[in-house]
Amino acid sequence: MNKRFTPKNGPIFLFSFILLLKSAVAWFVVFDEGLNWSMVFTEIPFFIIVFSLIEWFATKRKILYYMIANLCITLIYFAVLMYYKYYGVIATYHALQQVDKVTKVGESTYSLITPYYLFIFVDIVFFLFFMFRPKYIARWKERGSKRMNRMVLIVISAISFGLCIFNIWPNHASMSEIKKAESMGILNYEVYTLFADTTEKEEIIPSDEISQQKIDDLKGMVTPESPKYWGVDQGKNLIVVQMESFQNFLIGLTLDGQEITPNLNRLVKENTYFSNFYTNAGQGTTSDAEFAVNTSFYVPKNEPATSSDYMKKALPSLPKLLSGNGYNTATFHTNSVDFWNRTDLYKAIGFDKYYDQSFYGDDDHIAFGSSDEVLFAKTVPELTKIDAEKKPFYAMVISMSAHHPFRIPEEKYKMKLPEAYEGTLLGDYIRAQNYADYAMGQFLDGLKTSGIWDDSLVVFYGDHQGVPMYTLGSKERNLMEELIGHEYGYADMFNIPFIVHSPSGELPANIERTGGQVDILPTVANLLGVSVTQQLHFGEDLLNQETNLIPLRHFLPTGSFINDTSIYVTGKAYADGTNYSLNDNSMTKDGSTEAQFTSAQRLLNISNSYILQLPDQP
Question: What positions constitute the catalytic site (predicted)?
Fold first, then answer.
């Protein structure tokens, strides 16, 4: 091996330089400021500490230990890159809890890889090539057997440790995880989260200090004595349709004269449409949306609801509420019930029955199960059977074909894309949602033909964002700006449609006040004439409130929230955060208040505290 790759004073500086290049890739992708000199002073001290330990303790196979350390740190950087591309935040050890899901969403995961990300593995391939050639093994052993001067090791380790502490401690109070990682250094931040989670526990508010009135006060809600539209759909069925990755910008959108979602456009025109409606989903995406809608609670801080202790608890829920009022309840999904641990979710929230892949089979496969066409074709007859039992029913129907990365079979194409959109994530997304809308049209026809439509309160909403702004390249950003008329941003990404078909025909056509998925439970309960006064909830009846406050726990830094006019994104503290207008995503100066910032955090704390103190399921 050439000496320039193994300096006489040991490989510590070689491997530190290699990892510095890898950290540069991560910094370039993740941080707004991109590459700067602070990267050197935050990342290198960590490398030096790790490699000094190897120099101090390793007497044999030292180069092998260097390579193992190099591989482990490389994997951390790669995980940070991949996680940021979809979630927009820094991955921590909590993400390891979902590693088993990666293999099940392989195509979605692989689609996030940008070719230059693989650059960070080049040196590992290079080293492995030489490590297994006998004539180089002896040279590696010779070089690796040389030990650095102990005094030099002590000095550089002490300086590096001091720099790590200097980088971590002054920045530990920062609210934004992105800002915190940038100030501390990515690796320092990863270590910090390990210790912080054991020493900085979230306050648990005693259950006797938690009340609906306190929640209402924090949100600025005033409950009317005689709520409008109370019980206008009393005794009707409830059908909740959760649409995979569906964002609001698609509503009414045309491309080369083609309506992308003609069936949903008709729904919007003929029913009640909430245009300022936002997702409450977290890392569990689809299953988190199911949780938020059915409980009116917020998802946990560091993990999907279905992977948390929440699933052990006797959760108040919409299925339980309606079951207590004489309803049958069921949920329909073509994926396996084991995915995202839905077995526990459905038990925790109290559905009487679930239909999953074992019912739908795997015919006409798209994404993780049978297509939306199969979902809807097989669901309508089941709803007819349930309806024949002469009891009202609550059915949740979850579509899936338009799942990231949105690559549907060519025979499912229902529209022709302009050439500029071919081969892009945005183009694939539009085509997948156009197909999903086609399948939705068949479902609507089936509900109307069977007579269920006229006897049911039916609501439609998107589960979570489909096009993460962190994933788009410059070409796709330009295409998106042409489509929606302004720069694509947070306000667009989290905005999902909410459409309500009320058999009463009494609701207004359009409602522009801000809402979120936690608001669905109290809103439909009001229409069905079912009281929620004895059931703690964090949503509000959107037909009887004028103001709202929606904390965001995932995909944005801690402390972010949505109010009536803007999305607030936290900085190191409230003062240096940024407000983005809900109208056009432009930055605004006075879009939020510090009182709202404090209230949003308190709401999340109350939600978590209340659930964790509920009795366990019997």
Answer: 286
